[in-house]
Amino acid sequence: MVVFRVPNMRCGGCARSVTAALRGVAPAAEVRVDMERREITIEGEPDADALARVLRQAGFEGERLAA
Asked: Where is each HMA domain found (predicted)?
């Protein structure tokens, strides 16, 4: 499990964009979005470095939190 805080994820459209970007790297992973906390949890053996890179490429800075 990998958890990122994404402070500039502010709306449903942002959440959909982030989810789509992450699923592009880890299509079998379960991606959960917590808009109130601006956090994303990815379950299913994801590559944290690849996920962080994809978040940046999508225009979102993600801070990895301890899982």
From this structure: 1-63
